[in-house]
Amino acid sequence: MSFLRKISTRRLFALGAAVVAVMGGATALALAATGGGPKPPPAALPVAVHDALTAPQVQGVTAHIQFTNHLISGSTLQGSDPILSGASGRLWASSDGKLRLELQASGKEGATSDSQILVVGKRFQVYDSGSNTVYRGELPQGHGSDAKDAGQQGGEQPPSLAEVKKGLAKLAEHANPSGASPSDVAGRPAYTVKITPKQDGSLLGGAELAWDATHGTPLRAAVYATGDSSPVLELKATDISYGAVDSSVFDVTAPPGAKVTDISPPAKNGSDGGNGSDQAQVTGLDAVQRQVSFQLSAPANLAGRSRQDVRAIESGNSGGALITYGQGLTGIAVLEQPLDAKHSGASATDNGQQLQLPGVQVNGSKGQELDTPLGTVIRFERDGVEYTIAGSLPPATILSAAQAL
After folding, report:
1. For residue 146, what is the enclosing H or E element?
2. Who contacts 342 (Cβ-Cβ below 8 Å, separation ≥6)?
């Protein structure tokens, strides 16, 4: 399969909005419909999806893009940041597993800030001009050159129409996909599908995806909050062209004086026999309690949701725990880890200067609250332990969960 057709769907969408969220956001290449352009003929959703996955491989993509982010309110955001405030820029992608994404934002006083994402095979780097920092690391196993090579060698074959129908039927167990609506996206004939969750109660209203009807390349993605017809997140290109991209486009080096931070996960010690970390994962309340250096707070129920899972995680030089409550989009995640004194009370950004989060009291402990249209995060400290509670739920529900810990 083509890297641009399949692998880049996961990579562009994850890196656009949630490299974004290293980084975070987790999220997407979206192109705005310009109107007046060609539209493809009507097609059933399984047929449109199958045609996209079996379309001839394209050698490269070049596009002008516009990223919109309405997660953070203007009163909370200070300064200009391409990821937090939205930006315009360019994107290049090649069929051999390379991606470059540039974003430039303008602040309220006219100041500009740049972010740049580069992916070459398994390796990625993200440059933030605001902090003059380059973050480097590796994509999770299954992305990058390994997956690409498997496709080139014939190890990964396009799904049949029957397999596509089976996959959509499985999706329909948890969500409501619309049909494939013929549309005009950035002057290209495209199909658009909207997916809404079947489960009620969360702040996530749905997502929309469009792809080129001829080339099968992802063209549009957007995320919506419940009750809002305008997307909360949108990364769009105003135009797009196909063709080989010169390799020099991806020859990007860190600016002089930039701080370089390696965020690759630590190497495994091989105790699991090289089969990944699943076999060595410590789970269960008692087992995780023996692993961490502090007393876990993990009640059987939290904000009306029963405890589902307790897992040990790495937290600097000490162990932490991830505890989940409830299921699906209405679930709550609780992260507990030893407090790093160097970052005690820091704001919820990489450089500590971009977000001014409202304060919140949790049973006498000071904390911060990030309230967005798609979810809420509350962080507080108590007795040398840092607690982070998150969910796609209103602030009152997350605060109730925090107070019950």
Report:
1. helix 145-152
2. none
